[in-house]
Amino acid sequence: MKITKKLIKPFATLLLGVFTLGALIGCGNKTPVAEGYLWTATKGDVTINLIGTMHPAPSTHNFFNKKVTKILKNTDVLSVEADITDMAKVTASQDKLLNTSDKTAKNQLTEDEIKKVNEILAPSNMNISALSVLTPAGIVSILESTMYEGENYTTSFDELLIKKSQEKGIEIHELESVDFQLDLLNNLYTWDDVKATIATVTDSSKKDETIKYLKDTFNAYVDGNIEFLEEDVANMKKEVPEFYDALVTQRNIKMAENIDKLVKDGKNHTIAVGCKHFIGEDSVLKELEKRGYTINRL
Where does the record place a coiled coil (predicted)? Predict the structure, then answer.
């Protein structure tokens, strides 16, 4: 399946970034508050809190609004895509991005592309040699991170939420894992995507388009504008159906299955995953409705 960077771009917020973990732990009183996306799912006497998270994100806003704070006060178990605060596990998982193929950045990229990569990485004191040990997915992640860092998109609500929950003694449960997500990345990204990413990062108009998309998505999150994401997710499904099925539909089905099994233990459960997993006709919300849950937005 050949997927170009142009088509991959809208999916940036669907996989939890594990290599650009932010340092934001708390927010001042004057920090703008993000509205975000919150729901409850109820079946019988079981009510689950659902928090749509944002990753990557800038460290400019307070994600812990009054509703989120109230939810955490009544949470025994927080279920997330992956526990990215377990650095021992994350470090071990990074081996999945090491390239064991004879195809490397040095022999798959043109001289011009290698020159551009060296220019991109120069501020980080890295060059093409550092990328030659990585898979296409690893290279794309590194190159994209240069754009995110330049716009201060270096944190994630997921990380902050996990750390806050740990401070409160809340149990952390993984619906997926870092290993799972890296395997998924390796299966999706090709050398064509590496080339497209280089073109995006070094072309001012393409780079501006990508940054605008990130900012528009984050602004929609801040405002709680669900219509923006509904249109975005619908476009993804239309433009790249096979990719959408692997990255969105199948994951959402499995998440909903896991959630339905998990919440039968009598504990108070909160589910926190990337907000787009809760949006659209193939969302976790729709899958929970199929299993008899009533959904209400908070």
Answer: none
